Amino acid sequence: MSSPLLTMSGISKAFTGVQALQNVNIQLRAGEVHALMGENGAGKSTLMKVLIGVHKADEGYIQFKGQTVAFDSVLEAQKAGISMIFQELNLIPHLSVAENIFFAREPLKNGLIDYKTMRTEAKKLLEMFDIDVEPTDIVNTLSVAKQQMVEIAKSLSFDVEILIMDEPTSALTDREIDALFELVDKLKAKGVAIVYISHRMN
Predict the structure, then answer these.
(1) What DSSP line would sit under 67-106, residue for residue?
(2) Which of 33, 50, 89, 111 is deepest in the core (most CB within 10 A)?
(3) Are 91 and 155 in contact (CB under 8 A)?
(4) CA neighbours closer than 13 Å in the CB half-sphere of residue 87
């Protein structure tokens, strides 16, 4: 068996008298999909937010690719290869798909945003994972499911090795859920490790 890509050991976290996490352990290997299940308030999202630097653990340690890590921000975690898609989508509605994918990281040419390169790179990413949107589509014209796919494409643009999905099916139809699971299968085949947070047992 391959060595773990991620180890979270003895993680504890409290918020003003509420013990959200107590001595939690999890290991994740490349190409694995883990479902993190539990009722609302069970600490599923909190554990992953500790991983990506939103919260600091009170106790415990995190190892990623054999190195002990403690990320200070979501962006730092993304640059390292760990990305989380939050339940509340974090897209800018009036911008295009390409602009959202490369927001604050736009390719430049002579000091100006190179829109042609940005759209070309976005299209490659969308086609690689059969995401059925165009780079020029404005985000607020898309369905929730397609916006979620844009969030996933944005995460994948960081060369992600671990992708965390927080309640990704909560607003999707059965058909859209099937499309999401097909994408999960493709990511798994490429060696991406996935943590799938849900309180819906089905």
Answers:
(1) EEE--SSHHHHHHHTEEEE-SS----TTSBHHHHHTTT--
(2) 50
(3) no
(4) 13
Per-residue buried b or exposed e for 138-171, using 16+ beta carbons within 10 Å of the residue's own CB:
ebeebeebbbbbbbbbbbbbbebbbbbbbbbbee
- Residue 96: which residues within 8 A CB-CB, separation 6 or more? 135, 136, 137, 138, 139
101: its two tokens: 């994918």
pLDDT tens readout for residues 69-125:
999 999 899 999 999 988 778 899 999 999 999 998 999 999 999 999 999 999 999
Residue 139 near residue 97 (C-beta atoms within 8 A): yes
For the chain, the straight-line distance linking the first and the last C-alpha, in angstroms and rounded, comes to 29
Predicted structure pTM score: 0.88
pLDDT in tens, 113-139: 999 999 999 999 998 878 889 999 999
pLDDT tens, residue by residue, 40-58: 888 999 999 999 999 999 9
Residues found in the chain: 202
